[in-house]
Amino acid sequence: MVAFSHPGVYGEHTMRDMLKEAEVAAQTLGVQLQVLEVKSPSDFDRAFSAMTTNSARALIVFPSPMFYGAHRRLVDLAAKHRLPAIYAFREAVAAGGLMSYGTSIPDLSRRAATYVDKILKGAKPADLPVEQPTKFELVINLKTAKALGLTIPPSLLARADDVIQ
User: Fold this and answer.
1) What is the pTM of this model?
2) In which domain, by residue range, is 79 found?
3) Does residue 121 lie in a domain region?
């Protein structure tokens, strides 16, 4: 399994924690994890070529604004290489990706709007508490699963917040 990481997009501590959790999960599943650093969209073709050379069987795309902005290209490349991929944002699944698990972008936007409202009403930004995301979504694309020859277990489908037919 390969994980795409966008180096420097988050703080060193956050990136280290994401990589550590991915490695622990891979070990638990008995899967070897290879992390590829992808610094810009111009690296996508090189990264997918390296995955093909190393006979990768799946892809995890870590959260990153760059990956979010280029999600259609990532989805297209994963489809071209017949790789099941999981993303951190539902938009990739709506574009044809296999699966996503991550924060709800619309929910984050609503939360940000409440902060803007408070600031416009006179609150000092430094006085507002830092909030963590509270709404996470699991989205599965069955059409993509079928195209890849995968069967998604009913127990996983039952847990999904959205299943795209």
Assistant:
1) 0.85
2) 2-104+136-164
3) no
